[in-house]
Amino acid sequence: MTPTPTRIPGTEKIEALLGVSSFVCFTNVVDFNLTALAGTGRREYRLDLVLQNDDPWKPTPGRSFRVNLRFDGVKGLRLPEIDGPPDQITGLVIDDVSHRQLEGIRFHVSSCEGEEFNLLCRSAEVMSVERVA
How high is the pLDDT of residue 55? Predict the structure, then answer.
């Protein structure tokens, strides 16, 4: 049985354009912006991540799309050992881990291979999806 992908706010934007609710086909990192949030009373971070599908034949032949994702309350961010943010990941998986009852954590976000990119966060949202080619 195939697991149902975790739905986050804005998933319907991807479904409307691509017909899928998965982030696995988005592997090119276009923008990676980690920001410390002020005024929260504790150390808290936001990650704005823009990804593009690298194979215009999957899932929509001849078309490329960019997805802008936002993660708030980021903790435990792990990146590959490189000089700066990653420029590629092996797709993105977002799992609801609220059942683990980790304080202020709802999602675990990782690359498909899990080792190169990982984070925990309070909230995740698809901000926009756009056709680029």
Answer: 62
